[in-house]
Give the backbone structure.
Amino acid sequence: MYFVVFINCQDDVHVEEVDENTPDYSDFFTTTTIFPTRKALRDWVTEVGRLHNMVIIIARSQYDVEKFTGTKKRLCHFRLQAIECVGGGWSVYVINGKHNHDLPDFNEGRAIIGMLSKDELNLVEELTKSHVPPSQIMKVLSRVDEETLTTVKHIYNARQKLKTEAMCGRSVMQQLMKVIVDNNYLQWHREEVGTNMVSDIVFAHPDVVDLLFLFPYVLVIDCTYKTNRYKMPFLEIVGIVPTGKNFAVAFAWLRNEKEINYQWVMDCVKQLFDPEKLPGVIVTDRELALINAVRQIFPNSTHLLCTRHIGKNVDNYVRKLTKNEDIVKAFRSRWYKLVDAPSVASYEQRLKEMNEAFKSMPAVLDYVKSTWLDPYSDRFVNAFTMNILHLGTRTTNRVESAHAALKSWLKTSTGSLDTIWPSIHSFLEAQKCEIKASFQRSQNRDPHVTVLRLFMLLKGRVSHKAIRLLDNEYKRANEVGVDGFVCGCYLRHTHGLPCAHEMKEMEERNTTFNLRK
């Protein structure tokens, strides 16, 4: 076995003669020590070389084939020989102690000497599984070993090697399918007609069926972008638990945002539900293809439109037409008063006032009437949706906040599907833990409002979210009295919780909430 030093690499292979005045480094490697193992000898030679800015590699051995195949070496004459002793152990001899080049001043940036050790590779693997970026892994390695010569390039190479080993020759799509199935996810996929190429994928966490059985009331659906290198739209569907937390119902990567794609996804999602407990309300923006798909697959579910997106569209139209921010603000104020009207009569009165105030802008009035009010008023105006059990969800803010939370885990917009899926899985596992923790907090902690006699029986049995809603509603009780018409019963209709006049009646009867009822 021979050890050889390769330094000052060049693109062309050439051999330089050794000048007679070249320093001889034989003394550094001359020793009478008998090393117990071949590895111990190699480690000693490597460490001596490192101390003198030499990179030691195995060139040829009677046990190993030739190791180097590159063309960037100088074919330096420096040679060491390791020999196995007759009585056991290993010794090293210097065959040629001179180099045909100058030694470098430092070792940083040299690929071989900066290679990751076995322990460092294990650390890189664990941190990669925890979605730590290479730059942060580099910081961890530097703290573990302040004298490390590893660079970020070594870490990228190690991560790529780990990925290649994990894939075992599978394609990206094959690897994605494997990890989805290995983690017991529910999944559906379909191929393009006439090809073996997957066009659409839907997957859901294995625990989502149980959540949907308990909380099927509201779904919020929206697409997001910039999540993968293939520029495939990423559809996210979320539900709501009583503690106010979101839970991911399903995800889908789509080839196109067409009605046929959305209809296939909705059909897959429908299979997650109990046939007797389909969603009561589905909230989206005005994506016509998605709206049509929802109507086809969930015909008995109430479809609502996001009031925030509608408001932004109205703002943009007025701004484009008038180019006057004061007018935009004035119209916005009138618009949201109209959208939030507490009754049909109030809605009609506010619409009349808006038409009168902006009669000099017929194009704007015609736009909001023909584009929004006539076809969709029953899907976003409060006067028409206040009798629907939508749990206060009149926008797609929930799913958009879920987009942001997920992207904070992805940390990239150019990953392949198989590499970003582990981040999605970790995100869902963290979400599951947070949902469980929110239920535990509601069960173990006592909100201050429960000191009131009316709320005493709710302690530890009703979510804090529901108790806060009841507490805020109770503040109206003295004002509305026991008159249901004055009360409006908004909380009863939209959340299924007792409203102000019901609580006033209980208070006058000296009773409390009947949880069984």
